[in-house]
User: What shape does this take?
Amino acid sequence: MTDQPIDFSGRRALVTGGASGIGETTAGLLAELGAEVAIADLDSDRLGPALRRTGAKAHTAGDVADAGQAESMVADAAEALGGLDLVVNSAGIGDDLVPVHEQDPDRWQRVVDVNLRGTYLICRAAGRIMLEQRRGAIVNISSIVGLDAFPGRSAYGVAKAGVIHLTKTLACEWGPSGVRVNGIAPAYTTTPMVEDLLERKIFDPTLIERRTPVGRLATPLEMARATAFLLSDWASYVTGVVMPVDGGWSAYGAAGDVVKIRTGEG
Ligand SMILES: NC(=O)c1ccc[n+]([C@@H]2O[C@H](COP(=O)([O-])OP(=O)(O)OC[C@H]3O[C@@H](n4cnc5c(N)ncnc54)[C@H](O)[C@@H]3O)[C@@H](O)[C@H]2O)c1
Assistant: This one.
């Protein structure tokens, strides 16, 4: 039996957070694989340059955490592309890296709102279009921080855990109507979000490399490829799954140093 390579010709895709990082790279890959792509982002200044870099056809600006703006961005994308078949929810922000008892509640709420409520609102608006046409696929970007607890990251972790649960719930609600909803849980990926943390020496990349079985951080393209697979017909029987794309991070449970064992030095 032969199968065709992934081909998104004739599919219309919206990528939120499409002006940077994983979202931008995913938008570019989907366009390269034949999709008509619209990118949405809060940062309106970066949308034009990102559109040119990715080969997207349209862009729309707004805050995914705002119900009206989320609806408008989905409507803008569907209007510009003539419909909507695929959605990637990549818009997100990091948190303050402080313990719960020191965290500002308004800041906590904003991190939850952008990462979780934003994903919910975009899914909700896009889902109505997809349910009507009885076809569609969504990928939500969660995180390894949504799988296990990371001290100092309560807002982000709660939001990303919520994204996992939301993904499963939507898959169950919409499966009978032909709409698949999946997610990925990336580990540390070399995007502006992480490069900023590295520059500010918030964390040490060598510790992450040692804690990761494959021994390095991820590239945005590795996240885009996993996302493209889940959006594609190759994943036609996959729904309600949030796939770790983490170089083995979530599989690793030992107390000791993974590097010594891998290189045979220990
Ligand atoms: N980089 C990593 O290591 C990593 C790891 C796990 C999960 N993630 C997740 O992947 C997604 C993409 O992250 P990234 O590393 O590419 O970050 P990034 O900062 O490079 O890109 C995020 C984009 O989202 C946009 N955005 C932020 N708030 C928004 C809002 N309210 N409405 C609309 N757009 C908004 C930003 O303007 C930016 O363009 C995020 O959801 C992030 O939490 C990233």
Notes: The mean pLDDT is 95. The domain at 12-191+218-249 is CATH 3.40.50.720 (Rossmann fold).
